Amino acid sequence: MTKFNIAGFALFFQLATCMADTPHSALEILGFDPAVRAQDDLFVAANGGWLKATEIPADKSAAYGFDLPDITAGRVRSIVEDLASKPQQAASAEQKVGEFYASYLNTAAIDQAGLTPVQAMLTEIDAIKNRKELAYWQGRMQGRIETPLWLRVFPDFKNPGINEVMTWQGGLGLPDRDYYLNQKDPRLVKAHAAYQTYLAKLASLAGIPHADAVAQRVIRLEQRIAQSHWAQADTNDPSKISHPMTLQKLITSAPGFDWQAFFQGANLADVKQINVTQLNTATTIAALFAEIPLDDWKLYFKLRSLDEAAPVLPTAFRAAHFVYRGTALQGITIEPARWQQSIDALNTALGEEVGQLYVARYFPEEQKNRMLTMVNNLLAAYRESIKNLSWMTPATKVLALDKLAKIKSKIGYPDHWRDYSNLQIDASDAVGNRHRSARFEWEYQAAKVDHKVDHDEWMMTAQTVDAYYDPMGNEIIFPAGHLQAPYFDMNADDAVNYGAIGSMIGHEISHGFDSQGSQFDGDGVMRDWWSAADHQAFEELTAKLVAQYDAEEALPGKHVDGKLTLNENIADLSGLQVAYLAYQNSLGGKPAALIDGYTGEQRFFLSYAQSWRSKVREQMQLQWLTTDPHAPHKFRANDPARNTDSFHAAFATKPGDRMYKPENERIHIW
């Protein structure tokens, strides 16, 4: 993924093997489907047996062949419960972690407290007398709830050494504007109705009179907000979301909202520059604040606040929250175990405290060193690939190689850990812990504005199962949580590791050169360093990729959005192709052994397909198709392989095979 919702090396390195005398592929062969050939459907060939045998658990929106988030959550749980088994030093990190977790688990205390923990907030909203106070209150809520215009802190696109604040569209209780605006898809209409029911339930439980009418008023307000929102694909283009201006310019450009009060409430009264990302959205929503009655806004924010706090409110609130956000939006029929919810909340509130404990127990140094070797090999393979590009002009290749050489890699965990000593945690106050930690995080972010970027900081915790590329830092980040088997297996043969984690490394490097990353140079400065000929050639190639994914039907009548998913599809394609090159280079000219009846080349692609092993509920798939810049996993496995010459060579595909694609139609970008 690219970090916007996301050191180069010239020498080749060969991986040192960590295998036993008998070669071990680490492919999960029992999950294959022997009745399906890779030449016809690589994803099903590698995963069909598992797909047939697997039912999605009732408390999950999806099932994964290798559920690293669940594995990692279980590891964090063991750490936290070890802490709870013995006394901890007062105000220490260990005590805070244990007490936050305990407060979330103590549903009896949560039930007994009733609405008391949020009553002061509801009273505050009731007491708002004018639109200036409403704007100020929204500033104070930054970090806690997503207001219609909310704030993020990011490096300045043009001066990436300095942090700036940016506005972003938000404020919707449904996942995306399409859920409000698309009246033709019955699945979206059904979700919309479930949301209105949920809002009425929240109002009723909170004792707000005329609950059904209140829900209708709030839905109508959100409908107006949704009409102003950009499509998801447009928000992913840095060139479209760069509108830096002073506070005074913003006040003039988007009248109707008290921006000054808003920024005062957000601890940013002296802000020098604001990047107003979706400028026309900000202008429209600012006008809505002047137009829509104050009482409607107050009802809207009451329900948004209750929705945000519902996981730590009494049973009836938690149940209503699950019926909507779990069942209606994700298809889950049983609520996840409370301990799992507690771990998720803990990782959000005290992520680096937990991460420090996690890596000490679960991430040995040798894993980091082997991962760095693979990263170096991928960077070297990209250098070779860029030099041999046919579509890029020679002058731009020089700049591309310069950017590649400047890519930095961060593996496992940060060099310096966050300080949470000023965050107050109380084992008997789940709501307070949730809100204090949210405000603590926002104040931490706000303090960065107009100051130098800390290049040692990570945007993910060490226990996160994910990875990202940061275009302003020109760096790739792989947290320890993702560096586990089968994606990264110290005991697996190189073909399997390159197919799984190698393709992901290549994926993240590719983001430096996709339609987002290509707008930033090697120093992270947003500027156009491509020629007109490069842009034209790139757009012709990527238009073919958009068309390929547009044709993929993920649900009946619902296709992948090739434009929304373009950058991730570029990265999947490039990551796979360059990882294969790196794997071949790692062999040093020697043939790979035949293991489990498969050549090294075949194991590489089977491992890649196996890394996408999953089943997803229709409701969750619908949400992802609407909002997620990634394609569904089956297409992430098959479509890049279909465009890769080495896949066709490895499995000797021929016309008539469903995976076959004529050589002159295969797409190669990096």
UniProtKB/TrEMBL annotation:
Its cofactor is Zn(2+). The keyword Protease applies. GO terms for biological process: protein processing. Residues 39-414 form the Peptidase M13 N-terminal domain. GO terms for cellular component: plasma membrane. Residues 1-20 form the signal peptide. InterPro entries: MetalloPept_cat_dom_sf (IPR024079), Peptidase_M13 (IPR000718), Peptidase_M13_C (IPR018497), Peptidase_M13_dom_2 (IPR042089), Peptidase_M13_N (IPR008753). CDD domains: M13 (cd08662). Keywords: Hydrolase, Metal-binding, Metalloprotease, Protease, Signal, Zinc. It comes from the Bacteria. GO terms for molecular function: metal ion binding; metalloendopeptidase activity. Residues 467-666 form the Peptidase M13 C-terminal domain. Belongs to the peptidase M13 family. This is Putative metalloendopeptidase. The lineage of its organism: Bacteria, Pseudomonadati, Pseudomonadota, Betaproteobacteria, Burkholderiales.
